[in-house]
Amino acid sequence: MRVLLVGSGGREHAMAAAIARSPLLDALFIAPGNPGTAALGTNCPVRADDVPGLIALARRERIDLVVPGPEAPLVAGIADACAKAGIACAGPTQAAAALEGSKTFTKEVCDAAGIPTARWERFDAAAPALDYVRRHGAPVVVKADGLAAGKGVVVAQSVAEAEQAITDMMTDGTLGQAGHSVVIEDCLMGDEVSLFAFCAGESAVLIGAAQDHKRIGDGDTGPNTGGMGAVSPPTGFGRARQDAALDLLVRPMLREMARRGTPFTGIIFAGLMLTSDGPQLIEYNVRLGDPEAQALLIRLESDLLAALAAVAKGQLEQTDIRFSNQSSISVVMAARGYPGKPVTGGVIRNIAAAETMPGVHVFQAGTKLDGAGELVAAGGRVLAVCATGDTLRQAHDRAYEAVKVIDWPDGIYRHDIGLRALNAQG
């Protein structure tokens, strides 16, 4: 099978590593890829959101299956373009991808399907949004309605913080078109977890779960990011609770999407809050998470490519997904300055040395090769240093030992990924 994997982040590096192990694979192309994926297939200089360019590439390379990694190509209609070109695609249509492309759409689907989620309001202008938070009080969550690369959510603990978020998004345009309208919702309290499933029509097959660490600083302080690390599986959220959450929060959504004439096929990522009243939906994403995918996929024992091909054909009964009983952790190394303006250009060394350590995998994201062939930082989140272990403590210690081996003076990271889960284990 000839496969085109779309994307350039750590998630795509982890997906490429899993796909490359498949006996079904004949050739792997990654667009645009990164220096890490180049060791697993052929990188192609086509942007992930350049749908016509991706289709041209797929035709030229006689691609059998397109696997979109990030949300941008899905929201841009890559699955629809693939269908028109007669190429299989393991992702939802543009209409179904609105589950991630629009927070308002997701909330409307939840309300129609009876899915428990926070009370919400949508605003298209700053003045009524400001008036609402002043009357409602804090804490509240301010969300850009559109795609904002994981940076469009502010959990405001005070009215002043909510006012600033609204002004930044709606008046100052810090998130561009994504923040021209916002959703303001009640702040759910509890533990946040990420649930993943393969979906086709009204059917779903559980993939697994992970727990992300969104904020930049230790102790869950500072602004939200695209994700600073993850553990898998989450403590206290085992298979039985995952299955129950799938029944409560995913399968009703699939039925509602089918009823609307926009059935969902692909991977769903449900962000959940485990509240005292039970699981409630925070958001849907229409792809694997990052850095959750890195933590999940290093535990994968079954054939990811075979599962993706079955999903693309709508044949969930042929979808086999199996993970080891080990624990895993991913620790994101970001560039100094992230999530603001990151410091780029710094040389990164000793990744190969880190990967010789037991259970350790290093996935690249914001990297490139400079003119001298040196690996340098070229983005915000740059590396995901991951490890497996027979216990979460072993995985944690391995990952942080590997972080210390990597030589990158501009790198920053959280020192407490997984500690809350370890403390919960006693």
Could you outline the blueprint of secondary structure elements for this entry?
Layout: E1 2-7, H1 10-20, E2 27-32, E3 42-43, H2 51-60, E4 65-68, H3 71-75, H4 78-85, E5 88-89, H5 98-101, H6 103-113, E6 120-123, H7 126-136, E7 140-144, E8 153-156, H8 159-171, E9 182-186, E10 191-201, E11 203-212, E12 215-217, E13 221-224, E14 229-232, H9 239-259, E15 264-275, E16 278-285, H10 292-297, H11 304-312, E17 327-335, H12 351-355, E18 360-364, E19 367-369, E20 375-377, E21 381-389, H13 392-405, E22 411-412, H14 419-425
Parallel strand pairs: 1-2, 1-4, 2-3, 4-5
Antiparallel strand pairs: 6-9, 7-8, 7-9, 10-11, 10-15, 11-14, 12-13, 14-17, 15-16, 17-21, 17-22, 18-21, 19-20
Helix pairs in contact: 2-4, 6-9, 7-8
Cofactor: Mg(2+); Mn(2+)
Protein name: Phosphoribosylamine--glycine ligase
Catalytic activity: 5-phospho-beta-D-ribosylamine + glycine + ATP = N(1)-(5-phospho-beta-D-ribosyl)glycinamide + ADP + phosphate + H(+)
Notable features of this structure?
single chain, 426 residues, alpha+beta, Rossmann fold, Dna Ligase, domain 1, D-amino Acid Aminotransferase, Chain A, domain 1, 4 domains, 9-stranded antiparallel sheet, 5-stranded parallel sheet, 14 helices, 22 strands, 28% strand, globular
Question: Which range does the strand content fall in?
Answer: 25-35%
Instruction: Decide which structural class fits the backbone.
Output: alpha+beta
Through-space gap between termini:
47 Å
CATH superfamily of the largest domain: ATP-grasp fold, B domain
Enter the CATH topology name of the largest domain. Answer: D-amino Acid Aminotransferase, Chain A, domain 1
Give the rounded overall mean pLDDT.
95
The radius of gyration over CA amounts to: 20 Å
CATH class of the largest domain: Alpha Beta
Runs in which pLDDT lies below 50 for 5 or more consecutive residues are none
**CATH-scheme architecture of the largest domain:** 2-Layer Sandwich
Our count of helices gives: 14
How can the largest sheet be summarized? 9 strands, antiparallel
> How much helix, percentage-wise, in residues?
25-40%
Count of folded domains = 4
GO biological process, one term: 'de novo' IMP biosynthetic process
Keywords: ATP-binding, Ligase, Nucleotide-binding, Purine biosynthesis
Protein name: Phosphoribosylamine--glycine ligase
Pathway: Purine metabolism; IMP biosynthesis via de novo pathway; N(1)-(5-phospho-D-ribosyl)glycinamide from 5-phospho-alpha-D-ribose 1-diphosphate: step 2/2
